[in-house]
Amino acid sequence: MICVHCGCPIDKTYRIFPGDNIRLATCSHCGKHADPYIETDNVIKFLDLILHKTAIYRHVMFNQIPYRDRGIDIKILQMTFIILIFNTYSKVVSFLCSNEKRIHCEGEPMLFNSLNLSFSGYLSIIFSSCFDMLVYLTGVIISSKMFIYFFYKSVKIFKYNYLIMSLLFSSFGKIFLIFPLIFGYNTKFFWIVELFVLTSNALSISVILDADVLSSSGIILFAYVF
């Protein structure tokens, strides 16, 4: 567990007193409540995720998700499945609304049952979405290792599973691709969601590596190009 404000390790986020009274623990380093998010509503947490607040990522990755020496948390895997569905949808729509196949796309709701693709076509796009995510995660791992080796050698422990979980969790912005299903396709919106996800990824990497946002943005840019 860590303090969500300064990132310093702590023993516990709250203390239990007689009578089942709970009091937030105070960080010995910064003097603030170590993790006020344990008393915060989920709606406020989601808003803070959208606002790109570092504290909420520290809360989720280090204080809320149970510690794992290896492997990925089951809730993150479930979230990844949903992300892949929306990512596949965006690829299908982008394919059909490309310049070569552009037919009444702008402003029209695009549902899967209205897309004239063969079963093999759907499978190829699903495979493409999974492959893209795998290559992107690989690119982040490679660039993170390079960053640590050349610029940030003070990092003694590098846990791949937390790096991957942070990337998958910070890709929650893909759920906003549900709006084209309701309000209609818009090319700019897809690019806005993509940019939002990339900036969220950069912030989550900065939390995991305890690096500045500029360095983590460079890592994400390398992985995106890769």
UniProtKB/TrEMBL annotation:
Membership in a protein family: Belongs to the ARV1 family.
Any single biological process term in GO: sphingolipid metabolic process
Primary localization: endoplasmic reticulum
Lineage per the UniProt record: Eukaryota, Metamonada, Anaeramoebidae, Anaeramoeba
Tagged with keyword Ribonucleoprotein: no
Keywords (A to Z) from UniProt: Endoplasmic reticulum, Lipid metabolism, Lipid transport, Membrane, Sphingolipid metabolism, Transmembrane, Transmembrane helix, Transport
One of the record's GO cellular component terms: endoplasmic reticulum membrane
Topological relation to the membrane, as annotated: Multi-pass membrane protein
Segments traversing the membrane: 76-98, 164-183, 189-209
Cell location: Endoplasmic reticulum membrane
Superkingdom: Eukaryota
InterPro entries: Arv1 (IPR007290)
Function of the protein: Mediator of sterol homeostasis involved in sterol uptake, trafficking and distribution into membranes.
Name assigned to this protein: Protein ARV
